[in-house]
Amino acid sequence: MIKYFVAFILLCSVNMSAQENCNFRGMIVDSLSLPVFDASISAFDENNKSAGFTFSDKEGEFKLDLQCGKTYEIEIEHIAFEQKIIRIELDKSRRERIDLKSSKIALKDVVAQGRMPITIKGDTIEYDADSFKTGNEENLEDILKKLPGIQVEDGKVYYQGKQINSIKVEGREIFGGNTKLLTKNLPSDAVDKIQLNQKFKANPFANSLQDEEQPELNIVLKEDKKNLIFGNISIGGNADKHYDLQEKLFRFSRKTDATLISDFNTYGKEVFSNEDYFQFLGGISEFSEEGGANSLRSSMNSVLFGSGDKSASMQNHLGAFNFGFEPSKKLNISAFALAIDNNLKYKSSISRFYSEFKQHDENINDQNIFSFISRLRLDYTINNKSNLKYRINFNAQNEDNITDITSFIDESESPALYRKTAHDRQNSNLYQRLSYIRKVGRDHNFGLYLTHSIQNETPHLYLNSTEEPFSGYFSVTPEEGNYNLNQLQELTSQTFQALSVYNHLITNLSNLRVKIGANINHQKLDNQIFDKNTLINNEWTPTRMNFDFTELYADATYTRKINKFKFDLGTGIHRYNSENTGSHAGHSIEITRLLPHFQARYEISSSNSLNFTYKQTFEIPQIRELTEAFNIQNYYAISQGNSMLRETRYHQARLNYSLYNFYKFFNLFASVSYNQRLDNIRNEGYFNNLIQFSSPFNSKTPEENWNTYLYVSKRFTKIYTLRINGNASWSNFSSRNNNFELNNQNTLYTANMANIFKFRKKFEFESGLKWSNFNYTNELNTSEFTDWTPYTTFAWSVNEDFLIQGDYEYRLQYSEGEEINSNQNLNISFRYRPAKRVYLYFTAGNLLGDDKIVRNGFHDFYTSISSREILGRYFVGSIRYKF
Known about the structure:
Layout: H1 2-13, E1 21-29, E2 40-44, E3 50-55, E4 61-67, E5 70-78, E6 81-90, E7 94-99, E8 118-121, E9 124-128, H2 140-144, E10 150-153, E11 156-159, E12 162-163, E13 167-169, H3 179-185, E14 191-200, E15 214-221, E16 229-237, E17 243-252, E18 256-265, H4 274-279, H5 284-289, E19 313-325, E20 331-353, E21 358-383, E22 386-409, E23 417-440, E24 444-465, E25 483-507, E26 510-531, E27 534-535, E28 543-562, E29 565-582, E30 587-605, E31 608-619, H6 623-626, E32 630-632, E33 637-640, E34 648-661, E35 666-678, E36 681-687, E37 692-698, E38 703-715, E39 720-737, E40 740-759, E41 763-777, E42 782-797, E43 802-815, E44 818-835, E45 838-845, E46 852-858, E47 863-869, E48 874-882
Parallel strand pairs: 1-7, 13-15, 33-37, 36-39
Antiparallel strand pairs: 1-4, 2-3, 2-5, 5-6, 8-9, 9-14, 10-11, 11-12, 14-15, 16-17, 16-48, 17-18, 18-19, 19-20, 20-21, 20-47, 21-22, 22-23, 23-24, 24-25, 25-26, 26-27, 26-28, 28-29, 29-30, 30-31, 31-34, 32-33, 34-35, 35-38, 36-37, 38-39, 39-40, 40-41, 41-42, 42-43, 43-44, 44-45, 45-48, 46-47
């Protein structure tokens, strides 16, 4: 497969056309014969396909390279002039003078100076925001979706397949660096320029060969938005049960910036997601950006938000404040705080298909989640050769989840039992980071990074059942026909990390990078299980364990550049030491491993490159996996650790190809990756109709995973753009079910084709098809799930004051070739501006009244189909005032 992939990308990089090209040159002038700067010139062939694109320079001159022997339609546009279209037969190179007539547009709407939609300055691509707006944009994200070369998926922004993790406003970080909060809240009418730095380096003293380049966006505001408060306030709702309150205020000046946002709604508009919360946790992910390593598997559990699923009953509340102050050019201070409160009530069901039986649960859910997130950041430039950075984060989260469960076995219509659970979980995390970076000599640099974090988790579980829960594992006394089993648990973790990095530029074409680091972690686990209020005391409970982990490592990387080829070759030596002691069987690991890594990049051209990476890593089992004590996971599952677990080795390889041509409106990104896991930690399960018991083990079978991804975007004509992206993955792993070893294989295919039409910046229409297919097989079970979702969206700017938008999708879901669900979703919204700063909105959601969503999944022991009750038809009106 690799050879076909390489052949494909090489074909993309070679010009296969043997036809002769001709030059079409020209000069664009106005009625006074003065040159017109920044006119856009587009060429379309006889099939109305895009053949070329450029802009006129300050002398009014332009040049297009086109195939000879064809007829072309040349379209010239400029904001201050009427559009002009000419037809040419290009038998040979030629030159023409083109006169433009002044537009009848009001003088106040004409931009005095020329505005180029795209300007390339070295490694920075600058987009003129107004050149890509069509009138239906509400926030920054709506603009980013229309920029060539930029992808936006699920709120994440990508460039050349890389996620953009840094988006600044006027060169400053706001919202604690959370990109989604910024892109979804910064008003579109405040954006003047969007600057894409293709080779951003967090280290300001990095030399040209240090491989730390990542894309970064900087948003330049319009002049009339600076030094003033801008934003909007919205008040809305309906006569029944819904409300929609929003406030977004921004202020940027030379030394200070402040942002205040709030959002309260009851109809499923997502205000914060799980990934947003995890981005604020800091610690390992930020440390890794500097080249640090941490090989310990995470022991902390996650609290899952549900605000984006449009539950039948919901209240979503968010408030955030950001403040930045730059008292001098040397010091920058910023602070951020955010609070989220979500309340969700809904019905759900899940069917778990084991090899020998089916368990079906009908649930009534009441979930409350409160989160508080804060960050303080100080950046101090000591002098022109060194700087100091300090970060401190504090995050706290509380979840209260009550669920009533009615369980059925196989196809029985009589319930097997009733259960009620209450989860009360509190998490907190204090994280600090200090970094010092210094330039050494002319081309070398040194960095020292220190982090410290304290985490605490107290997940409490209360279970009430009509049958004895986990019979055979505990002896629970009934009370008035019901059984009460409670688990109180606390896990604390304290981590210290240190990393020093030295980069030595040997020559202009070679660099040596040396890293020395240490990770020290201490964890404490207390777990008690109660028969109502009576502590259960047996061989497997209660639990009191202490876990200590130390990782010492050193790494050297040599970088060499040879013409268009650049490679990094290095290896690291890692020393691991872990020990788990306490009330149950102990465990210790003491090993030393060499971990090689390699990276290569070949720049075929400035917009055409090939990348390959390979690395080895290790993972060390964590405290819960090692502790041979009972841990109740939920109302049907209980687990026990394994003190004999060993480390897991990972081999990871990835090949990427990217081709971006802004002037041909063509973007392509393709990748293939391979991962192999040796001695991977899997679970073996023992289960009957109502109880699932699991314990981890090291799989003897090497696990493999192949994954491919393709993204293609091409504008074919003035009005039509095609966008295709797809993913295919194949994996295999082993599991143990009731003492039977299984070899599992699964495949996942996804594809999305979108046809996008734009008519004179007034009407946008997108129609496409999403498809996915999932197959899961082993010796006992075979499952296949398929989704087909045709969809369409449109936005019509009737005039400057009136906008209509809508979206529709029809989803068909199949299991084993049989339809298991179909639903349609239709949403329409209207926006009207009765006054300059006042907007009226009317939203009609889920007009077809579908009341559930269906999902599928797989586990080491079973496959599943779940459904969830969602918000029905709703109508909301609101009024918005813009500052």
